[in-house]
Amino acid sequence: MEDRNAPIGVFDSGVGGISTLRTLAKSLPKENFIFYGDSANAPYGERPADQVYQLSVTAINQLRKQGIKALVIACNTATSAAKPQLISRYPDMPILGIEPALKQAVDAGKKHILVMATPLTISRPKYQNQAAKFKDQATIYSLPCPGLADRIELGTAGLPQISSLLDQLLAPYLGKPIDALVLGCTHYPFVKDIIAEKLGGQIEIYTGYDGIERYLEYQLRTKSLLRTENQKQTIQFMSSRDTPAELALYQDLFDHGIQR
Ligand code: DGL
């Protein structure tokens, strides 16, 4: 297979990256994708950064065995813990990473911004520096959400637990005039309507992967890596929890999301 007709790898600690994959697959319909979810080791967001790096390497090596031409780290946690090291380790392919879209919310003039992310993402200097940089332009509430990604790993079956955990996490913010919600973990867009409903009011939601398809397209185009074959798009799922039930969950989340 010529490089340009190879698939694009999309990687996350688990099912979260499927929310990003949905956007990418729709926006780049001529490209093939292989998704790898490290569900056996999720959540990453409550592990030390060096472990997240090691786990990411193992997962990415699985995707590289499939001959991917580019990689999207559809995981804010892995991006914040390991992206520079991963770029140095794999200089032969474009690597893009999802990050909390705090800047987009500030640039849009939002004044009371709630950022939900994993404990590791929130604790990293990258996020902390960004939040400090924007503190004069907006009130930023940084909310680490331990336990939320693992409940979303259960898909629709996790809904009752997701709802009660969200009630606890969001309780301190209910009276605040929040006008923007930054979902700094790719698991959370699957429950964005539930979060928005609980917060109430007019809230703009930022997922961090808006625009990633344009950046990916640009990277592929400038490196002459856009697919030229004319066959139908294929999307393949791989998981470190390699059971038929897990792969069926991935497909279901890709097709339908979390159903209420
Ligand atoms: N989906 C991942 C993210 O965007 C992380 C969830 C986790 O494994 O903790 O940060």
From TrEMBL:
Pathway: Cell wall biogenesis; peptidoglycan biosynthesis. GO terms for molecular function: glutamate racemase activity. The keyword Ribonucleoprotein does not apply. Keywords: Cell shape, Cell wall biogenesis/degradation, Isomerase, Peptidoglycan synthesis. The active site is at residues 75, 185. It comes from the Bacteria. SUPFAM superfamilies: Aspartate/glutamate racemase. Belongs to the aspartate/glutamate racemases family. Provides the (R)-glutamate required for cell wall biosynthesis. This is Glutamate racemase. It comes from Lentilactobacillus parafarraginis F0439. The gene is murI.
